[in-house]
Hints:
Elements: H1 27-39, H2 60-74, E1 79-81, E2 111-115, H3 120-133, E3 137-140, E4 158-162, E5 170-174, E6 179-182, H4 188-197, E7 202-203, H5 214-219, E8 235-241, E9 247-249, E10 288-295, E11 297-298, E12 302-309, H6 315-327, E13 336-339, H7 341-345, H8 351-354, E14 357-360, H9 370-377, E15 387-394, H10 397-411, E16 418-420, H11 430-437, E17 456-461, E18 464-466, H12 469-486, E19 492-496, E20 500-510, H13 514-533, H14 546-552, H15 555-571, H16 604-607
The chain binds 2-methoxy-4-[(1E)-prop-1-en-1-yl]phenol.
Amino acid sequence: MSNSTYGGQGSIPDLAVRYSGVPSRLSQEAIDAKSKLFSQKTLPDSVARRRTALPPGVSRENFDQAIAELRSALGQENVELNDKPLVDGWYMEHPNTHDAYHIADQEELIASAVVYPSSTEEVQKITRWANQHKIPIYPISMGRNIGYGGAAPRIPGSVVVDLGRRMNKILDIDADNASCIVEPGVSYFALYEEIQRRKLPLWIDCPDLGGGSVLGNAIDRGVGYTPYGDHFANHCGMELVLPTGELLRTGMGAMPGKDGADNPTWQSFQAAYGPYVDGIFSQSNYGIITKMGFWLMPATSHQSYMITFPREDDLEQIVEIIRPLAQKRVLGNVPQLRHVIQELAVTGKPRTHWYNPEGSKNKRGGQMPRDVIRQRASTLPCGDVSWVFYGTQYGDEATIAAQLDLIKKEFAKVRGSKFMLPHQLPQDHYLHSRVAVCSGVPALRELDWLNWVPNAAHLFFSPISPTKGKDATVIHSIICRLHAKYGFDVFPTMCVAGREMHYIANIVYDRADRDAKQRATSLMREMIREAANQGYGEYRTHLLFADQVAETYSWGGGALRKFNETVKDALDPNGILAPGRNGIWGKRFRGKGWEILDGDKRDMLKDGISPKL
Ligand code: EUG
């Protein structure tokens, strides 16, 4: 089957020819994933644009003048106007012009232009240009922050700085130190393949999907699944451009090496001397990171497994069993606990395959009834269960065996639980994909969820839960009750870090269905509010919910917000860098109607997201 058959958008890029492409070992899988997704697409590839995007308060004439200047500084071909029809594409052929998984109108979170710097120096030039023209810029590494806004800027008409296209070098892999230093355009796929090519006994750590930027995911504080799963915690050293164009190296990189070389301990010691500043460049709009170091894990033996639990109510006991195992690092990585409905979704078959009550249409939502899920699950290898735990153990054979004995013994306390190894499951079972991801082999399998509904988009609700049965149950019941109210199936994935779990609820919706978009938006707003009322906050959120989430961190009269704003105004006096990212606005934009706080009355689909200036 030719991979250009679908969608008329050209072929799937290969990693050998494009930095954002798919490695050849996965090219058939990518072709299949795309064909499945596109077979469910009812939207056209693109529609005619209805408006032009300009930065707020900048006239067409001034904008054209500014763009001409930028082009003469960086080269004509390295600045593109975003004046063509928008194409949502799909994961491997994703846009850098807007949010492919739009929840407002497709033309809301949109760039006016995209610029492609080739060096840190050119990034400095861009920031100086932005300050001169008071044009907001929005840096992306690769733009695959899917479910959280993708490549989209928060202020319509911002100029997107696409760092990855021309800054995608693995600058160094130090096999002795087990570390690397990369530019923003290095994907998990690319780093993994290079380590294989060099035959180094090292692992990377990747999230569920392998196409994202190693650097970008880490500064958004993303998570992966080996013992090095906390990406930010395993970074070591940064080089970055401040909003006013000055350069900064953090960690030991702040000390010059011998004869002008990079410091030899830049990727060995994180903090250096004085305040540890790296943290303020994560989930912020205080700088543009152009180089970042990471620790790599020495390769080891590993054994993945799955444990099923029969009852919904087992959640509390499961989490109580997990906690001490995680604290003692018997669970040495980031295991996942999922609901059984995901066993259906991750087969890649659409919801209508499992449940089709009123023909092909299922307007205004509604959940798949529990008894239908039970009946369908009973036809799958997991059987009629409620929860599925995906774990992996590491070390030599004896260590793994001893750990597995303990783990089996502990989880056996849950009546009716079952332990399964990969060889006991069919070749296409999801556990085999966990084996890869949990041993640092980046994959694509997670895309299969997206076939649940036509034109599927998704949105993550991502609160932090203590690893305690009672708290997990409270959060889970808020999420279930509100998903039922707004008519969405509940897809929970609890990623266990230790003392806390990232509870990720994945809202999958049809982006052609305005009603579904509105319900998804209301569902997010209400979950954020209700969780916060119980003291539970999100670790990360989609751009459009950033203000509301930031607002929930209100202790001490909004002390954290005030601190963030003080830093923002000091570092970025013109407020040009990624205004609104993570709810942080410079003084130029603050309090002028951009913030979308709890109780905001605008209907994002009808009224848009910009204040009437
Ligand atoms: C997932 C995990 C995340 C996240 C978004 C998605 C997993 C989905 C732990 O963080 O932020 C299967």
